[in-house]
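User: Just a sanity check before I run the rest of the batch. Below are the structure tokens for the first item. I only need the designed sequence back.
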């Protein structure tokens, strides 16, 4: 089981915890499979095994495996999609990296690698800009430092570098995206 997995309650609900900042928790939002299936915002089918929905309070995307009775948060962010005042809790190092990169690169788009199989590793975050093919990636199975940092110009994964702090990871992404933006 992934460290971020949340078991569904007997009534098919789970809580999305939110923070305004790393030290300031917000009231949680209760999400429900039954309510979402009957609402105007139904769970979206991604694969036969997994569905997804979005917490309207914080913008966290949730993947739900009904058979396994597990919900798992993920990150998909672009300036057009969400301008929420709070984020998901617990705030992970990847969330802090995103905040730093977003401040420096306002047109950032971020997506988390997501396989339909619950057992697959989803600890890869891909940072890119619209209309630019190259990207920077950070990998960590837990969303916490250290990250393996790579970019499209590397010839192999052996060239990846270790970012042991949030600041190092953010600087790696910012510097690479800035160079891509200049060359476009």
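Assistant: Here's the designed sequence for the first item:
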């Amino acid at each position: 089981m992934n460290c971020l997995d949340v078991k569904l309650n007997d009534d098919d609900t789970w809580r999305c915890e939110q923070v305004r900042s790393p030290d300031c928790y917000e009231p949680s939002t209760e999400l429900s499979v039954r309510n979402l299936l009957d609402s105007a915002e139904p769970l979206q089918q991604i694969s036969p095994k997994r569905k997804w929905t979005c917490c309207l309070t914080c913008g966290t995307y949730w993947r739900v495996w009904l058979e396994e009775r597990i919900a798992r948060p993920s990150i998909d962010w672009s300036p057009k999609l969400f301008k929420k005042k709070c984020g998901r809790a617990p705030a992970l190092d990847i969330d802090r990296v995103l905040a730093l990169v977003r401040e420096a690169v306002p047109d950032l788009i971020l997506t988390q690698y997501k396989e339909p199989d619950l057992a697959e590793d989803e600890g890869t975050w891909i940072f890119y800009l619209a209309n630019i093919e190259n990207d920077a990636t950070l990998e960590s199975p837990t969303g916490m430092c250290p990250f393996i940092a790579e970019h499209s110009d590397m010839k192999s994964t052996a060239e990846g570098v270790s970012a042991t702090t949030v600041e190092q990871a953010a600087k790696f992404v910012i510097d690479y995206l800035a160079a891509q933006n200049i060359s476009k």
